[in-house]
Amino acid sequence: MQLSVIIVSYNVEAFLAQCLVSVERAIKHYYEASGKKDAIEVFVVDNISVDDTTEMVKTKFPWVKLIENKENVGFSIANNQAIKISEAKYVLLLNPDTVVQEDTFTECMTFADATPKLGCLGVPMFDGTGTFLPESKRGIPTPWASFCRISGLFHLGPGSENLNSYYAGHLSADETNKIEILCGAFMWMRRETLLEVGMLDEDFFMYGEDIDLSWRIIEGGWDNYYFSGTRIIHYKGESTKKGSLNYVTIFYNAMLIFAAKHFEGSQASIFNMFIRIAIYARAGVSIIRRVLSKISWPVLEGFALHVGLFILLGFYSDYSGILYDKSVTIKALCIYSVFWVFTLYLFGGYDKPWIPRRVIRGIAVGSLVLIAGYGLLPEALRFSRAILLLGPFWFAAVVILGRISLGGWRLNAKPTSRLIIASPTESTAISNMLDSVELRGNISESTTVIGPDEINTVFDVVRIKSIGEVVFSGRDVSATDIITALSSLVNKTVVCRIAWTDDGSVMGAGGPGPDPVTELDQAIYGLSARRSKRILDLLSSLTLLLFSPLLILSGRSPWISRSFRVLLGKATWVGIDAPGKESRPSVFNAVENDDDRIKERMNLAYARKYNWFEDLKLVFRALFIRS
Question: CB 414: neighbour CB atoms within 10 A?
Answer without folding.
Answer: 12
